[in-house]
From TrEMBL:
SMART domains xref list: DHDPS
Uppermost EC category: lyase
Binding locations of pyruvate: T45, I203
Biological processes, Gene Ontology terms: diaminopimelate biosynthetic process; lysine biosynthetic process via diaminopimelate
Functional note: Catalyzes the condensation of (S)-aspartate-beta-semialdehyde [(S)-ASA] and pyruvate to 4-hydroxy-tetrahydrodipicolinate (HTPA).
Pathway(s): Amino-acid biosynthesis; L-lysine biosynthesis via DAP pathway; (S)-tetrahydrodipicolinate from L-aspartate: step 3/4
Record PANTHER family: 4-HYDROXY-2-OXOGLUTARATE ALDOLASE, MITOCHONDRIAL, DIHYDRODIPICOLINATE SYNTHASE
Protein's UniProt name: 4-hydroxy-tetrahydrodipicolinate synthase
Catalytic activities: L-aspartate 4-semialdehyde + pyruvate = (2S,4S)-4-hydroxy-2,3,4,5-tetrahydrodipicolinate + H2O + H(+)
Any one cellular-component term (Gene Ontology): cytosol
Organism: Marinomonas posidonica (strain CECT 7376 / NCIMB 14433 / IVIA-Po-181)
Pfam families: DHDPS
Residues marked Part of a proton relay during catalysis (site): T44, Y107
Keywords tagged on the record: Amino-acid biosynthesis, Cytoplasm, Diaminopimelate biosynthesis, Lyase, Lysine biosynthesis, Schiff base
Length: 293
């Protein structure tokens, strides 16, 4: 089972929006050296919605090659078209990813039965471990716990990234799923609390700029060491809030650029962080100890 801090990795881009392959390699080394337990390549934080299929596949291949088995690689392969999701998942398997992360279809708002059939079809088409991803605040589509439980019986659907931030709902899910089905947090502010309830990890945005603290907090939380986990989490809590002043990944890419981890490149319709938020994000970075004054 994949556990721990799984960074929702940004896709570094040059100022003209081209994928920066050199910085991508550097980011991977940075995360491995800082103790990140796994890398999610081309998830939604990685701007999967603006990359072409070829770029998407190339980034996954590059991440797998550079990681070279040192940590787990999870490829984001979700789409609002089942056919497209199957294609992306097939490419990720061919690239050597350890698992795939599939966001619920956005905009078209399938029924719960439609969600079940969508994910079941992908799992049956591509024999690779698959992690569901529910983030209704971004997709306009909410996969209910009962649907997750139905999908948990599909052999290669092995977990879910729950980004609802609803701990009561998360606890109910944890109590209902099989022991070998992992529940991961996709909400940094509540991640430690969910892991202390039995969650297996945190697919984190904050980890892009504070990987060591997020990884250590995850280790403590999974081990049940609540005081140590909460203490570390408090140290980076300003980032949990300020990295969402504008739509993700706008603030986190700007923050990463301030650390020299990447250029401030991003693709339309996303735009660089508005100047009015620079001071707030920078202050959060200082308070979290990742940027010197």
């Amino acid at each position: 089972m994949i556990t721990g801090s799984l960074v929702a990795l940004i896709t570094p881009m040059l100022p003209d929006g081209a994928v920066d392959t050199e910085k991508l390699d550097d980011l991977i080394e940075f995360h491995i050296n800082e103790g990140t337990h796994g890398i999610v390549a081309v998830g939604t934080t990685g701007e999967s919605s603006t990359l072409t299929h070829e770029e998407h596949a190339n980034v996954v291949r590059q991440v797998v090659k550079k990681v070279n088995g040192r940590v787990h690689v999870i490829a984001g392969t979700g789409a609002n078209s089942t056919h497209e999701a199957i294609d992306l998942t097939t490419r990720a398997k061919e690239a050597g990813a350890d698992a795939c992360l599939l966001v619920t279809p956005y905009y078209n708002k399938p029924t719960q039965e439609g969600l079940y059939q969508h994910f079941k079809a992908i799992a049956e088409a591509v024999n690779i471990p698959q992690i569901l991803y529910n983030v209704p605040g971004r997709t306009g589509c909410d996969m209910q716990n009962d649907t997750v439980l139905r999908l948990a019986s599909v052999s290669n659907i092995v977990g879910i990234k729950d980004a609802t931030g609803d701990l009561e709902r998360g606890q109910a899910l944890l109590e209902a799923v099989p022991a070998d089905f992992a529940v991961y947090s996709g909400d940094d502010p509540t991640a430690v609390a969910l892991m202390l309830l039995g969650g297996k990890g945190n697919i984190s945005v904050t980890a892009n700029v504070a990987p060591k603290a997020v990884a250590q907090a995850a280790e403590y939380a999974i081990a049940g060491e609540a005081e140590k986990a909460h203490s570390l989490d408090r140290s980076v809590s300003p980032l949990h809030k300020k990295l969402f002043l504008e739509s993700n990944p706008i603030p986190v890419k700007w923050a990463a650029s301030q650390l020299g981890l990447c250029h401030d490149g991003i693709r339309l319709p996303l735009t660089p962080l508005s100047e009015q938020y620079h001071a707030a994000v920078r202050q959060a970075m200082v308070e979290a100890g990742v940027l010197l004054v």
